[in-house]
């Protein structure tokens, strides 16, 4: 047989073979950043949090380039899914990727014999903003007890190993008035609670303040949404470049700053060929 003919028929059969078996080849070909971050991750930690997508990533289960560093989640003690915001820990109760809403609660108020007196969360200069579903209440900590006061709801909490009488107040003026009734008092001025929970206290359908606190509050996040959408449209998945500290687009061939290269499909076939050949 003519050597040229056998070579080209070999080539043709290889191409036919490749076209019918492109699946294994795409595995040997995809950039590991892309393949590491596109495998779906169902996150369960005490409760089900659904499929984790960018900007979130789960420490210990995913590479850090799969998500934004400010959206790192981890599982503590097998029961609390944690996100840290300005170095404070919050338990994640719920993630809604469509509306980009996160329901979180400060670790202080989670079930214990006595809850720790809660601090105001710090959300300034973070990607997180309170939703309209959140109402700012105030908390007064005192060491004397106060008779029933309209717009204030009593609970107890510990601070510096001391038990305090605490009052969740519907607004700052109520909190200040309570403070004025005791020798000692501290006001935590901005304490976020869910509006329906607060309404439940106000209209008397709920009495358990600790339960209201444990429902936490909602924040909406922003994280390079426009760039990320463009990346996904180009066939990539959003990621984070840990050397330049910027979000990037992870594509089948390699990571790009914004979106995948449209040149790639031809490069893909060619390298598929090489990949099978060698
Ligand atoms: C990412 O992929 C590389 C190469 O396939 C692998 O060695 C590594 O363990 C993966 N990392 C994670 C966190 O899955
Ligand atoms: C609490 O009240 C007592 C007197 O009722 C007072 O001596 C004490 O300093 C107050 N403050 C604290 C932080 O305990
Ligand atoms: C604060 O709340 C109390 C009790 O709910 C209410 O009577 C009062 O009008 C409120 N004050 C302000 C300034 O909103
Ligand atoms: C009290 O408020 C809650 C939350 O808004 C609402 O679901 C509930 O129906 C209200 N109950 C009464 C008795 O008005
Ligand atoms: C990226 O962040 C890391 C850790 O915060 C820092 O050490 C590094 O210098 C940063 N790199 C750039 C290019 O900003």
UniProtKB/TrEMBL annotation:
Domain of life: Eukaryota
Highest classification ranks of the organism: Eukaryota, Viridiplantae, Streptophyta, Embryophyta, Tracheophyta
Keyword match Oxidoreductase: no
Primary subcellular site in the record, as a coarse category: membrane
Catalytic activity: L-seryl-[protein] + ATP = O-phospho-L-seryl-[protein] + ADP + H(+); L-threonyl-[protein] + ATP = O-phospho-L-threonyl-[protein] + ADP + H(+)
Domain Wall-associated receptor kinase galacturonan-binding stretches: 37-105
Pfam families recorded: GUB_WAK_bind (PF13947), WAK_assoc (PF14380)
Domain Wall-associated receptor kinase C-terminal residue range list: 172-254
GO molecular function: polysaccharide binding; protein serine/threonine kinase activity
Protein name per Swiss-Prot or TrEMBL: non-specific serine/threonine protein kinase
Source organism per UniProt: Vitis rotundifolia (Muscadine grape)
Recorded GO CC terms: membrane
Catalytic activity, EC: 2.7.11.1
Signal peptide (UniProt feature, chain positions): 1-28
Topology within the bilayer: Single-pass membrane protein
Keywords from the UniProt entry: Glycoprotein, Signal
Protein's cellular compartments: Membrane
């Amino acid at each position: 047989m003519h050597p040229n003919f056998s070579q080209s028929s070999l080539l043709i059969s290889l191409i036919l073979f490749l076209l019918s078996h492109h699946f294994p080849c795409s595995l040997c070909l995809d950039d590991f950043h892309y393949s590491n971050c596109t495998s779906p991750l169902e996150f369960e930690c005490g409760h089900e949090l659904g499929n984790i997508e960018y900007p979130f990533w789960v420490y210990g289960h995913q590479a850090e380039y799969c998500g934004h560093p400010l959206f790192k989640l981890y599982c503590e003690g097998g029961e609390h899914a944690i996100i840290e915001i300005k170095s404070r820990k919050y338990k994640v109760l719920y993630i809604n990727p469509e509306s980009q809403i996160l329901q979180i609660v400060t670790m202080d108020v989670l079930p214990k014999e006595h809850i720790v007196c809660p601090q105001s969360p710090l959300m300034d200069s973070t990607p997180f903003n309170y939703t309209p579903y959140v109402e700012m209440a105030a908390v007064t900590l005192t060491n004397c007890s106060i008779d029933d006061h309209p717009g204030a709801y009593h609970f107890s909490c510990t601070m510096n190993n001391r038990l305090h009488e605490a009052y969740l107040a519907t607004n700052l003026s109520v909190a200040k008035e309570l403070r004025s009734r005791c020798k000692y008092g501290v006001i935590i001025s901005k304490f976020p609670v869910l509006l329906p929970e607060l309404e439940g206290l106000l209209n008397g359908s709920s009495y358990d303040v600790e339960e209201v606190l444990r429902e936490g509050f909602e924040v909406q996040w922003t994280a390079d949404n426009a760039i990320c959408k463009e990346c996904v449209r180009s066939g990539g998945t959003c990621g984070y470049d840990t050397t330049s500290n910027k979000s990037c687009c992870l594509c089948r061939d390699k990571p790009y700053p914004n979106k995948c290269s449209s040149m790639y499909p031809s490069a893909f076939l060619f390298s598929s060929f090489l990949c099978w050949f060698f």
